[in-house]
Design brief:
Helix content: 10-25%
Number of helices: 5
Largest sheet: 5 strands, mixed
CATH topology: HIV Type 1 Reverse Transcriptase, Chain A, domain 1
Structural class: alpha+beta
Number of strands: 5
Low-confidence stretches: none
Radius of gyration: 19 Å
Order of helices and strands: HEEEHHHEEH
CATH class: Alpha Beta
Strand order of the largest sheet: 1-5-4-2-3
Mean pLDDT: 80
Length: about 140
């Protein structure tokens, strides 16, 4: 409960979500661990075993039923040759964290209510693109 409350407060603080009283689009949340890498640890037989490093938690809304009614993009990601052509003149290319990049995309105010989720504290709506919506990679 502490982790959920901390994540909700963080999203409220940066104005990615806001409180809503009622909605017909309510969906549940799941807390998913963020993994930043792998660490090798020796077991009792001195064999190295890879273990994921946990760096925090991410709120994931269960959009499975909502995705069923969503029109899917035929080509959600650009082709590699298009990406290479676009990047040839660039000096640097970096990979942005999934949380950071999607939360920069503003949702159309008419569609915000469709992202409503519930948690033990209240109901909230995303103002910016959440992590696991359908077609999010193509939109980004």
């Amino acid at each position: 409960m502490k982790v959920v409350k901390a994540e909700i407060l963080k999203l409220l603080d940066v104005r990615v979500i806001y409180l809503i009283m009622d909605s017909k689009w309510v969906k549940p949340i799941h807390m998913v661990p963020k993994k930043t890498g792998i660490m090798l640890v020796k077991n009792k037989d001195d064999a190295l075993i890879p273990i994921s490093i946990l760096s925090g938690w991410r709120i994931c809304v269960d959009y499975r039923k909502f995705k069923f009614f969503t029109c899917k993009d035929h080509f959600p990601l650009p082709f590699i040759d298009q990406m290479l052509e676009h990047l040839t003149s660039k000096s640097f290319y970096c990979f942005l964290d999934g949380f950071s990049r999607y939360n920069h995309i503003v949702i159309n105010p008419e569609d915000e209510e469709k992202t409503t989720f519930t948690c033990p504290f209240d109901r909230y709506v995303y103002k910016r693109m959440p992590f696991n919506l359908c077609n999010t990679p193509a939109t980004f």
